[in-house]
Amino acid sequence: MAVHDDCKLKFMELKAKRTHRFIVFKIEEKQKQVMVETLGEPSQTYDDFAASLPADECRYAVFDFDFMTEENVPKSRIFFVAWSPDTARVRNKMIYASSKDRFKRELDGIQIELQATDPSEMGLDVFKSRAN
To answer: Does this UniProt record's set of keywords contain Oxidoreductase (predicted)?
Structure first.
């Protein structure tokens, strides 16, 4: 599975310049490569991110999560989310599962990985508990 250059470029923008809140990546089966599907503006929220993931198809996503530590220090963590809903086709799940590690290696700077099969597994509370 190839990775489109745009994927790495947009990830670097998110990481270094913080020009995106999140990025949703999709595997284009015909071209056999991972492409950028959605870019979230810095002003967008977790709810916008969650709404951008399809209910019945797998996706990879990166989310720049801002939070406050217990000492009231603002911090952020870059999450990699492997979205694989139970309602996705088996072939779709297999393609995403088999390509995940290679794709993740292309994105240098991911701090925390989440795997989710339904929205409750990647709720805001999960992000908060994993970020600290």
So the answer is: no
The three-class DSSP label of residue 128 is helix
Residue identified by tokens 């409750």 is 120
Tell me the C-alpha distance between 87 and 19, whole Å.
Answer: 32
Backbone angles phi, psi at 25, to 5 degrees: -110, 145
**In the chain, count of helices (H) and strands (E)?**
4, 6
Cα–Cα nearest to 62, from 53, 71, 70, 73: 53
Q: At what angle do helices 5-12 and 90-106 cross, to 10 degrees?
A: 60
Summarised one tens digit per residue, pLDDT across range 35-68 is: 999 999 999 999 999 999 999 999 999 999 999 9
Instruction: Give the three-class secondary structure for 132.
Output: coil
Asked whether the beta carbons of 52 and 22 are under 8 A apart, the reply is yes
> Considering the entire predicted model, what is its pTM?
0.95
